[in-house]
Amino acid sequence: MIEIPRKEIYRYLGYRGIEPDESVRRRTEDCVQKLCAACTPRSIWKVLPLSSPSENVLITGDMEIHSANLYRNMQGCEKAALLAVTIGQGVDLLIRRAELVSMTDAAIYQAAGAAYVEAVCDDVNRQIIEKAVKEGLYCRPRFSPGYGDFSLEHQKDFFRILEITKTIGVNLSDSLLMAPSKSVTAMIGMSRTAKPCVIEGCESCGSRDDCSFRRDT
Ligand code: SF4
Questions:
Q1: Which of 72, 76, 122, 199 shows a CA-CA span of 20 to 30 A to 211?
Q2: Ligand 1 pocket check for 211: Cβ under 6 Å
Q3: In this structure, which residue's CA is closest to atom 8 in ligand 1?
């Protein structure tokens, strides 16, 4: 059972430096309970060899990526894990229904859904780290298409390589949006170079100031 971190929900709701009051907490707990009952987390991931034929170019599987940001983050990596995660369409139904009666509940479902899918990503990320450790490899933080100069167009590659629609029931629109909406794709570099990477990503990492692999935009 994956726990949805309440502090992340409140952060998405805009509570920074202030505590939500008792009524917001109660309402959030009620929404989280309904969300958990309505959602079915699913995931798929695959580890592939990674090569870099020239600066700012990476190849994994049949995907060729041109990205300075991703290249910096993946330097020295010999493999990459591609992953896709969803919490299913239940959250979208709850949001749509709530929008008709309570925009507050709709905002809480949005925030809780976002926190939930990230928590599922973290869980999959830990499984990938476990596999990497067994092979003597270290994982970099995950990096999603659409972040920095890693083009969102590569969603098409992720969908083809991981057969995302068939395996976890997520669809990709012509405008590259995923449905269900609380779905994530990402790539994780695996290297023999040890780095104190944290699952929360470079933004939360104590080593970010002097790390040459830092995920930057
Ligand atoms: S900044 Fe931290 S999390 Fe990011 S690549 Fe460097 S060590 Fe890893």
A1: 122
A2: yes
A3: 197
Name the residue of 142, 147, 213, 217 to mutate for ligand 1: max ligand atoms within 8 A of Cβ.
213
User: Domain count of the chain?
Assistant: 1
Residue nearest atom 1 of ligand 1, based on CA coordinates: 208
Whether the pLDDT of residue 128 is over 70: the answer is yes
**Closest ligand 1 atom to Cα of 213:** 5
- CB 198 less than 6 A from any atom of ligand 1: yes
b or e along 121-144 (b: 16 or more beta carbons within 10 Å of the residue's beta carbon)?
beebbeebbebbeeeebbbbbbbb
What's 56's domain CATH number?
Answer: 3.40.109.40
DSSP 136: T
Instruction: Indicate whether 50 belongs to any domain.
Output: yes
Q: Is residue 207 part of a domain?
A: no
What is the domain extent for residue 35? 7-197
Nearest to 147 by CA among 51, 72, 59, 78: 72
138-179, pLDDT tens digit by residue? 999 999 999 999 999 999 999 999 999 999 999 999 999 999
Q: Is the pLDDT of residue 217 over 90?
A: no
Tell whether 216 is covered by a domain: no
Other Cβ atoms less than 10 A from the Cβ of 4: the count is 22
Tens digit of pLDDT for each residue in 96-115?
999 999 999 999 999 999 99
212 assigned to some structural domain? no
Residue 204 near ligand 1, beta carbon < 6 Å: no
Angle at which helices 90-101 and 22-38 cross, to 10°: 140
State the distance from the centre of ligand 1 to the C-alpha of 214, rounded, in angstroms.
5
